[in-house]
Amino acid sequence: MSANTTPRRALIVIDVQNDYDGGNLAIQHPPFRDSVVNVARAMDAAAAEGVKVVVVKQMAPETSPIFAKGSHGGELHPEIARRERDHYVEKSLPSAFAGTDLEEWLRANAIDTITVIGYMTHNCDLSTIIHAAHVGFAVEFLSDATGSLPYANSAGYASAEEIHRVVTVILQSRFAAVLDTAEWIDGLKTGALPKRDTIYASNQQALARNAA
């Protein structure tokens, strides 16, 4: 897609399920109560501007501690469940493309750009975005319509804020244009395209910042 071409977008709403809303996998940063409002705003803006909306849901066995089949935690959050959508995808792996018909549906609808929102920044969003970039889609990511949680494991510890911040910086360097919901909605109306960076430019800017 050239810089002068109007994107043919689809909004991909990933795994906005109850377990993230204070459940067994509670989102901490940005807080779920704030980010889910932006998810809803983006869905409403997409509908108003004729952007197709795809809702994705993570599926897990009945014995799983998260997203268990038939559980309240595994169901779509009410704000998402009550809104209209153009396509629905159920997945069992992090990427919304893996083992689903998402790519086929996007191609059939002549989509060249996907805007990713939902959860989590560092897992299903990250996987979906990298997958999309590898199969030729331009990607946008709304950093305030998503969120992360803290991890501690044999590799160390990272807070929710650290994980979210670092992943968004990495995405902006190569894989997606990172912006907030208000900027994205404004761009739908004005046609303004979001800023995209490169690995080299991102590194050069960091070196200049460190030298200052």
From TrEMBL:
MF terms in GO: hydrolase activity
Keyword presence, Hydrolase: yes
Highest taxon in the source lineage: Bacteria
Annotated ranges, domain Isochorismatase-like: 10-182
Parts forming coiled coils: none
Pfam family, one: Isochorismatase
Zinc recorded as keyword: no
Keywords associated with the record: Hydrolase
Entry protein name: Cysteine hydrolase
Protein's organism: Mesorhizobium neociceri
Source organism phylogeny: Bacteria, Pseudomonadati, Pseudomonadota, Alphaproteobacteria, Hyphomicrobiales
